[in-house]
Design goal:
heterodimer; A: mainly alpha; Rna Polymerase Sigma Factor, Chain: A; 2 domains; B: mainly alpha; Arc Repressor Mutant, subunit A; binds zinc ion; Mycothiol system anti-sigma-R factor (chain B); RNA polymerase ECF family sigma subunit (chain A); transcription (chain A); RNA_pol_sigma-70_dom (chain A); sigma factor activity (chain A)
Chain lengths: ~200, ~90
């Protein structure tokens, strides 16, 4: 088996993999790039860059495995290695923020908001998107991968090069941060939260 | 979903941290089979678990269905194919 996998693809096979397994994900790839950079041109560059790399290293792609996860990993690495270096954004802040968060304690799962399911359901797409976009990139990324793209914890661990336990805890924290943002919107918009019922301002 | 009454449920969770971790893993599709029974029992007996589960479910639903999507620039696919042609 492994000898078969290690052989190099013929030109026809390369074309078939590229068109059949890689290109269908261009929509998800572009949106991932856009949600990382908030910029159409940067997203375009990231996607082009990713597909060129994917073609160049196509022999290291095992046919029949998850092409989407493989492509997402390349895009994520391109983003970290190239885009983040070039951009003027203070990238270290994100990491530090994440780091102190992680080192603070073991994850203790708890409810951190009075937000109600009903208020969340009433929220607009813009509110949800804004809340997501306001998260630090590492937290934003896990939510994009899990909730928007439907990757499993295991796939996410591979895409992000982190242990599954870290995926789980980072997701939990990301969603708690998201809930805090949404709760802020809910209170401004007059949606009901438990806190409102206890003390009416 | 229609079970809004909380009368039969205890108001304090015995182990919130463990329960919530389990509920969130189930919602993320990471636990199947046996977890279904555990889930329905928890939701029937524990109010904090019940509320947490529905909130977490709502968050996942709106993220999945309501987040604004960008349309891929029409020329992007052709641009990529062109670049691939060049390096072939
Ligand atoms: Zn409970």
């Amino acid at each position: 088996m492994s000898e078969v996998q290690r052989r190099k693809y013929s030109q026809e096979e390369k074309n078939a993999i590229f068109d059949g397994e890689f290109m269908p994900h261009i929509d998800s790839m572009y949106n991932f790039g856009y949600r990382l950079t908030f910029d159409g041109d940067d997203a375009k560059d990231l996607v082009q860059d990713t597909y060129l790399k994917a073609y160049r290293f196509i022999n290291s792609f095992e046919q029949g495995t998850n092409a989407k996860a493989w492509l997402f990993r390349i895009l994520k690495n391109s983003f970290i290695n190239e885009y983040r270096k070039k951009s003027k954004q203070p990238t270290k802040v994100d990491y530090q923020e994440v780091e102190t968060y992680y080192n603070s304690d073991d994850v203790h799962y708890q409810s951190t908001s009075d937000l109600r399911a009903e208020s969340v359901k009433d929220m607009l797409g813009d509110e949800i998107s804004n809340a997501l976009n306001s998260l630090a990139v590492d937290f934003r990324t896990v939510i994009i991968l899990c909730d928007l793209e439907g990757f499993t914890y295991e796939e996410m661990a591979k895409i992000l090069d982190i242990p599954i336990g870290t995926v789980r805890s980072r997701l939990h924290r990301a969603r708690n941060l998201l809930k805090e943002k949404l709760q802020g919107y809910a209170q401004n918009m007059g949606y009901k939260t438990d806190a409102d019922e206890e003390n009416i301002d | 979903m229609n079970e809004e009454k909380s009368g039969d449920r205890k108001m304090k969770c015995g182990d919130e941290s463990k329960c919530f971790e389990l509920l969130e893993s189930i919602l993320d599709g990471e636990l199947q089979d046996s977890s279904k029974e555990v889930l329905s029992e928890k939701l029937a007996k524990c109010q904090p678990c019940f509320e947490h589960y529905h909130l977490e479910q709502a968050i996942r639903d709106v993220l999945k269905t309501k987040c604004t999507k960008q349309a891929v620039p029409t020329e992007l696919a052709d641009l990529i194919r062109q670049q691939i042609q060049d390096i072939k």
